[in-house]
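User: Sequence recovery, please. Input:
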């Protein structure tokens, strides 16, 4: 079981909850903090103090006083009116992540909710009941208001949820699992929706897929290097130590490890003096992507354990402060950077595909065709890769540089971080398909060169890949192969020959 405390949630724990189905609970110490914070809210209501979101309206209505007889109705109205999400729902795993992350944030004890609210969030996680949350409609400041309102609907028995592979009314799923909806009281509706958990949840899922894909891209590139009889000298450790970027050094080390016993790689001057940049500069380009991934991971780990509510309650209610921790700018930047970094993995992969299929750039059969002319082989696969790369260029336009005022100009600068996170995920999805095409072309080229001459690691990868997409012996509907390899890469739990980040050669220590 993963025990939350609002402070120390890690990526490993998130992975266990999202993908391994681990149960979730929270610590007794956290419960005490939550109870103290709740007592402060109840005191504010009893004393009829004017505090934003507890005894006032929201946004531009922050100057409208709400008497204590209407605090429950205020919270219910908030959730219903703000549930304005539109478009397709977030992937179910993202909805699951939202529940987990919102519960963790509330456990910090700054939000003033009752423990039962957190218990109900975790009841949904543990019962695999995931709210249907539309993807579009958040500005990424004032919190992810629209998406999180759809999340909050599930706690009060409204809206729809994913349950056992079906989209059903929330009450249907709650009844089957013996879970009772709750009535939100003072501040609880606001505490549920004033946060960055939609963009952060989408970002966490995107990052986890991006990290795995970045490792896989190095194995795939290694197969391509063999197919093109690439020059291994470009990956010599001394070159990369001379520049000094750890991530670049690491990528070169992993490529050398993947190709350690290959008979297909060459030395400089043996066939040619230098390879093209898409081969020679793999450590520099992929390494720069890893630098970005490390930055993104750092920001997400902070945000997973952040208090993003407003107002925040300190010193047992002696200090209640309105601020802007709900503003998604840090994650908006991180998501834009992630999209750009992953788009570059697709860019360089597509150029390697071109080198594999273009007879003017290699000595392989034109377009890797088994019968050039009569059969087109991989010709249009390169077209498809080029299309995805071009689409990524539009998706990588930063969302974070945009802003539009809302709530009658009270909320006059917003992050658009949720848009950035969605675009980053789409870029990652496109990039995986580009790498799937490189996998198909690289395997074909390596087979032409001789599977028996491949390195042990890349040969193992090829053998696994051939179970998914057979060799190209004649033209067929390659769309099916691309999708099959894409699914294999997405679901694959390990990366062949992967070196852990801290496994460096002696010179790097």
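Assistant: Recovered sequence (509 residues):
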């Amino acid at each position: 079981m993963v025990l939350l405390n609002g402070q120390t949630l890690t990526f490993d724990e998130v992975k266990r909850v999202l993908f391994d189905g681990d149960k979730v609970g929270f610590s007794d110490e956290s419960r005490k903090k939550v109870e103290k914070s709740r007592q402060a809210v109840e005191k504010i209501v009893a004393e009829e103090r004017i505090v934003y979101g507890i005894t006032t309206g929201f946004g531009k209505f922050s100057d409208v006083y709400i008497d204590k007889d209407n605090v429950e109705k205020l919270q219910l109205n908030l959730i219903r009116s703000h549930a304005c999400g539109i478009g397709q729902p977030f992937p179910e795993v993202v909805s699951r992540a939202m529940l987990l992350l919102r519960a963790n944030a509330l456990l910090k004890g700054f939000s003033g909710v009752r423990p039962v609210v957190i218990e109900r969030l975790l009841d949904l996680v543990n019962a695999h009941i995931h709210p249907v949350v539309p993807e579009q409609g958040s500005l990424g400041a004032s919190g992810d208001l629209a998406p999180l309102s759809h999340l909050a609907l599930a706690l009060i028995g409204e809206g729809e949820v994913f349950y056992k592979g079906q989209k059903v009314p929330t009450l249907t799923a709650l009844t089957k699992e013996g879970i009772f909806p709750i009535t939100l009281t003072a501040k609880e509706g606001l505490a549920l929706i004033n946060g960055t958990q939609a963009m952060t949840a989408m970002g966490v899922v995107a990052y986890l897929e991006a990290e795995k894909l970045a490792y896989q891209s190095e194995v795939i590139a290694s197969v391509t290097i063999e197919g093109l009889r690439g020059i291994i000298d470009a990956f010599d450790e001394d070159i990369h130590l001379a520049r000094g970027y750890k991530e670049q050094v690491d990528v070169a080390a992993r490529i050398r490890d993947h190709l350690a016993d290959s008979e297909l790689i060459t030395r400089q001057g043996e066939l040619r003096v230098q390879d093209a940049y898409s081969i020679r500069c793999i450590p520099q380009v992929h390494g720069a992507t890893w630098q970005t991934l490390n930055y993104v991971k750092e920001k997400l780990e902070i945000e997973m354990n952040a208090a993003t509510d407003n107002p925040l309650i300190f010193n047992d209610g002696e200090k209640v402060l309105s601020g802007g921790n709900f503003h998604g700018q840090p994650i908006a930047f991180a998501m834009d950077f992630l999209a750009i970094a992953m788009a570059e993995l697709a860019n360089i992969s597509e150029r390697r595909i071109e080198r594999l299929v273009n007879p003017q750039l290699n000595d392989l059969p034109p377009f890797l065709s088994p019968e050039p002319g009569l059969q087109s082989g991989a010709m249009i696969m390169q077209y498809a890769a080029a299309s995805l790369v071009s689409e990524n260029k539009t998706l990588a336009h930063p969302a974070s540089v945009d802003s539009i005022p809302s709530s009658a100009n009270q909320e006059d600068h917003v992050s658009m971080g949720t848009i950035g996170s969605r675009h980053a995920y789409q870029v990652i999805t496109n990039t995986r398909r580009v790498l799937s095409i490189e996998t198909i072309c690289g395997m074909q080229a390596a087979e032409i060169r001789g599977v028996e001459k491949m390195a042990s690691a890349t040969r193992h990868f090829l053998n696994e890949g051939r179970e998914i997409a057979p060799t190209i012996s004649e033209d067929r509907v390659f769309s099916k192969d691309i999708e099959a390899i894409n699914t294999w890469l997405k679901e694959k739990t390990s990366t062949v020959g992967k070196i852990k980040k801290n496994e460096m050669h002696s010179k790097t220590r």
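Residues 417-449 form the longest helix (33 residues).
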